[in-house]
Specification:
The protein has helices at 23-33, 56-66; strands at 7-17, 37-42, 48-55, 74-83, 92-94. The chain is of the alpha+beta class. The protein is globular, with a radius of gyration of 12 Å.
Length: 96
């Protein structure tokens, strides 16, 4: 199976000025445009956490987008952990 068809799941935590800059809404729009599923949410410590599932190449591309974030964001760090593919999501959502 090539990278386009191989399914991947990652959980990421993004640090920096990532809350109050539309990071969640931007992530949702971007993930949906790439046909990824999963979720994004703010954490109490000021970070943003997200899970992406989909084709390996699209997940990798989304993670690279998150290294920059939306225009007003200032990403200073990103932690990435690969998880077992579950296929549990039907769409991409913002969690509260």
């Amino acid at each position: 199976m090539d990278n386009q068809n191989r399914r991947k799941r990652v959980k990421i935590t993004i640090s920096g000025r990532v809350q109050g800059v539309s990071f969640r809404a931007w992530t949702k729009r971007t993930a949906e445009s790439m046909e990824l599923t999963g979720w994004v949410r703010n954490l109490h410590n000021g970070d943003v956490e997200a899970v992406f599932e989909g084709p390996e190449d699209k997940v990798r591309e989304m993670v690279e987008w998150c290294r920059k974030g939306p225009r007003l964001a200032d990403v200073t760090g990103i932690q990435i952990s690969e998880e077992a593919w579950r296929g549990e999501f039907r769409n991409f959502s913002i969690r509260f």
